[in-house]
Design goal:
about 140 residues; mainly alpha; 6 helices; about 85% helix; elongated
Length: about 140
């Protein structure tokens, strides 16, 4: 089960990353070019929200079926924090990714309350770009290539 969930989580991450980059660039372009917020902009932001939440759910399942998870009972939190690989997979990556999904959710929710295009794009640009920076900071790059 672990290898199947890990495979899905790894490949879905590419989709999340591409969609988040597209959504961030779209929001930045929309804000700086002062274009009108339209249906495609809404779809891009909504799709980003959906794929990131699906990735979060897959990641939660992966977290608990991972062989790394047993390290908490074997070495305790101190042992996990001393090992950089365990710390990345059990603490840093999950924590930062949860924060990223929260930022995406907050940005999406806040942008819907705005009445005009500029504040909508600004809100999406801020929250989605912050989420993108956080995601890029904690991707286990050595496992990706």
């Amino acid at each position: 089960m672990y290898s199947t969930v890990q495979f899905i989580h790894s490949w879905w991450a590419y989709l999340v990353l591409v969609v988040l980059i597209i959504a961030s660039i779209n929001a930045l372009i929309g804000y700086f070019s002062k274009k009108e917020y339209g249906a495609n902009d809404f779809r891009i932001s909504l799709f980003t929200l959906i794929v990131s939440h699906i990735q979060l759910l897959i990641g939660i399942v992966l977290y608990f079926v991972s062989p790394y998870f047993n390290s908490f009972s074997e070495g305790g939190m101190g042992g996990v924090m001393k090992d950089s690989t365990l710390r990345l997979y059990l603490v840093e990556h999950p924590f930062i990714m949860i924060i990223s999904v929260v930022l995406i959710t907050m940005g999406y929710s806040k942008h819907k309350k705005k009445l005009t295009s500029q504040p909508k794009f600004k809100t999406l640009a801020i929250f989605y770009t912050l989420a993108l920076v956080f995601v890029l900071s904690r991707i286990p790059w050595n496992a990706w290539f």
